[in-house]
Structure formats: structure tokens, C-alpha cells
Amino acid sequence: MNLTFEEFIQKFCLELPYFWGHCVKQNKRLEQPQTSTFKSHVIQRCGEISFDSPEQSAKCVRMLGDARLRGQTGVLSERRGSYPFIDFRLLNNTIYSGEIGTKKKVKRLLSFQRYFHASRLLRGIVPQASLYLLDEGYLGQARYMLSKVGMWDFDIFLFDRLTNGNSLVTLLCHLFNVHGLIHHFQLDMVTLHRFLVMVQEDYHSQNPYHNAVHAADVTQAMHCYLKEPKLANFLTPLDIMLGLLAAAAHDVDHPGVNQPFLIKTKHHLASLYQNVSVLENHHWRSTIGMLRESRLLAHLPTEERHDIEQQLGSLILATDINRQNEFLIRLKAHLKNQDLKMEDAPDRHFMLQIALKCADICNPCRLWEMSRQWSERVCEEFYRQGDMEKKFDLEVSPLCNQQKDTIPSIQIGFMTYIVEPLFEEWANFTGNTPLSENMLNHLRRNKTKWRSLLHKQYSSSRSTDHTVPMTENEEQTLNEGEAP
Fold it and tell me: Is 65 left (phi over 0), alpha (psi -120 to 50) or beta?
């Protein structure tokens, strides 16, 4: 059967992820960097560095157990796997519902099939027929979903199941092909796939929220935003690649706790980045390390690689929630003065930052069924941190106390103070396109549902115990912004 290039890429994207990850894992462990200078061929596993001659060496920087490498470009990259050690053992006491147990069983069954085929390949046993790690029904549904990847009602949870937990790799391969990035940048498809597997595997699957599925969801949202006419008419292939890569890697190696936790536990990353955008800096430097290790962009000129690394950093650092007001004020000023010139690279980059920020917090703007899942997941991650803080006699961080901070109250506050202001300005920028209006409508409906659930929770607690007062957070949430 003759296939076009696009059909081959789509087939490659759908079928290769199921066994590639297992092949990579066998050779994933990194060599420990030497404390003295060392040659380029020794450190290729810890981030590719280009040298003019074998005699040149790189300097390995160690700080409190965190290894980073400095290339000729001067950009530091972190050793893969340097994420914070967090004691998750106490989380084993969590009582899961029967539904989650069923999902785990399904995942084990699917994973066995993937492992079986991968192990045969590693032993040198080549299948006689074509390798289908999921049956045609799964692959057909995944292909159909990819044809609708630009729709806002895209169900990333279903897509992740259909791709056997490889939603991020499959999605990025497809989007790189759709946007013509593979051809434009002359990327090697196998090398691209290896890099994406690295990114996907460096997300922690035990995190309820900050995992590879969240990264895939943000990437799909970013793809939707890149199609908005006010952006799409001016974006270059480099802008598109930067936007997709930043979305995919913006939370890579996230430990499942926030910056205040790392600071008060005196974690080495907090010391390394001087308590400023600690996680975002780590995500960026980890991404650079994987880019160099995979050699995805090794064929590009050094100056161009350096520029890509810097712009990736600027995009990922923009996702720091502590910088929300900084970007919002700047966006409002631009829109008020009407001085955004999308022909200029700096203004395009700024709007890419805004687009990534929107994609990162777009869950409240999704359909209720998906939005609620994400809300429960992020709150579960908050509560796990709170339980850990209690275990180690630390002050419980805001929003992390399950007894005081309910999911509805957290979500209503998040929508009111963070999501609504940003998405209203985004709608002003795009010119109230159908997508922008659709997102704002979902946001308002979801906020109304959370407020209704908060009322029901309070009424239920009052009916069983008349002495139960409304918490300060709940009372403030109900009193603020009754109209969406």
C-alpha cells in the first residue's frame, strides 16, 4: 500500500509510541558527570554540547546535588532526573474509588500489551506482521480525534486512553507535521520522537495534576490559540515551534508541590534559583538539557540554537503565577494604547507568552465534565501537599488544607481573580472570536455550577450539624462576584 508523506507521519505518530518508550527506558540512566573537566563524548548523555575540537571541555557545575551543564552558548541546562525528593509514602493511605481502580486495571492490561511487544523487540524478535500495539478500533478512534484536534471540546482524557498513555508524544508528533515544522526545520523524525519521549517520561505520573496529560492538554489549547487570526496571520514557523515546545515542556519534572513548599523546606532548587520562579527555571533548564541530549536541533547554527533556548525560557518563565499581574497590566496597556505590532518579533513573543499563560490555566474554560476533572485533580495535589506539611509539622500552605479549603471555594476564587481577568483581555485581543466567546461562556457556566455546589455543601453540613459555621473562605467566596 502506497502512503503519502502525511499519511506515513500520522501512522508513525500513532503506532510508534507504544513500544518506543520501553526501548528508551533501557538506556535512560545518565552517566554521572565527572568533577573535573571531561570530553564531549563523555557528556553527551547529560545534554549535548558542541566543541570545536576533542581537547575542549565543558565545566560541570554542581550545587547541593543538582548538576547542570554549561555549553558554549552560556545557557545552563539541568541534569535530567534532578527533581526534588518528596516523600509520597504517606499518600498510599488515600482511599481510591472503585472507578479509579477500574481505570488502573485497564491501564495495566494495555501496558502489558505494550511491554510484551517491546520486550520481544529488545530480544531481537522481529514481528512478522505489522506491529499494532492497540487494535484497529483504538487506532481508528485516535486518528479520528487527531482530525478534530483544533476543536475546543477535544477530550484529552479519552485521547490519552486511546494512545495508551502517550497523548503528549502522539499529539506533538502530529502537530509538528500539521504545522510543517518537520520539513521547515529539517527535523529527523526519530530524533524528534526520542526528544518527546524524554519530555513525556520526565513528567511524574503520580502527580494528580502536573503530569504529561496536563502538558498534552495545554499543548492542544495552545494549538487552538495559534489558529486565532490575530496571531495566525503573523506567526513564523519558529514562533509556532516555540509555542508548542513551551506548552509541552512548561511543567516538565514538576514535583507535585509549589514554590513556597520548596522554599520553606530549604530545597536545593530554591537555593539554586534564589527563591525566584524556582519551578519555572527548573522546567526550562530541564528542557534545555533534553534538547541537547536528544540532539534534536544539533544541525542548526549555534546562534540559532541559543536564541531558541532563550525564547523557550522566556515563555516558560511567563507561566509563573506570581507574575500574573505583571503580564495582565502590560496586556491591558497595549490594548488600551492599541500599540501592538504583530509584525514585530517582540510583540509576537509577548502574545505567545499570553497565549501560553491562557493555555496553562484554561481548565475552567473547558466543558464542565473535563473542567471538573481538572479541578478535582489540582485540588487533590494541593491536599497532598497539605498532608505532607502537617506530617512534617510545617505551616499548611494556602488552599492546601482539605478541612478548610473546599474544591468549590478554591475554584470560584481562582476563576474570579486569575482566570476571568486574563481571558477577558484575551478576548479583547482576539476580537471576541467564536473560540474566545465559547471559552468565556464555559467559564461563566462552570463558575455558576461551582457556586451552586458550594451552597449545597454548606446546606448539607448545616442540616447534619447546626453548629457548623461557614468557613471564612466559603463566606468570602459566596459574597464576592455573584454575577459572573
Answer: left
State how far the alpha carbon of 14 is from the alpha carbons of 134, 157, 171, in Å: 10, 16, 9
Q: How far apart are CA 82 and CA 65, in angstroms?
A: 8
Helix extents (H) in 227-367: 229-232, 237-249, 259-264, 268-272, 278-294, 302-317, 324-337, 345-360
Q: What is the largest CA-CA distance in the chain?
A: 78
Residue 268 one-letter amino acid: H
Spatial separation of the C-alpha atoms in residues 22 and 207, rounded to whole Å: 21
Name which of 202, 303, 288 is nearest 245 in CA terms. 288
423: nearest Cα among 331, 302, 293: 331
Residues annotated catalytic, as ranges = 210
> Three-state SS for 127?
coil
Q: Is the pTM of this model over 0.70?
A: yes
Q: Please give the chain's pLDDT, 484 residues, in tens.
A: 556 666 666 666 665 554 444 444 444 433 333 333 333 333 333 333 233 333 332 222 222 223 344 444 456 666 454 444 443 433 333 333 333 344 444 444 444 444 444 444 444 443 333 333 456 677 889 999 999 999 999 999 999 999 999 999 999 999 999 999 999 999 999 999 999 999 999 999 999 999 999 999 999 999 999 999 999 999 999 999 999 999 999 999 999 999 999 999 999 999 999 999 999 999 999 999 999 999 999 999 999 999 999 999 999 999 999 999 999 999 999 999 999 999 999 999 999 999 999 999 999 999 999 999 999 999 999 999 999 999 999 999 999 999 999 999 999 999 999 999 999 999 999 999 999 999 999 999 999 999 999 999 888 777 666 555 555 555 555 555 443 3
Would you tell me how many other CB atoms lie within 10 Å of the CB of residue 483?
5
Side-chain-side CA neighbours of 443 within 13 Å: the count stands at 26
CB atoms within 10 A of CB 397: 19
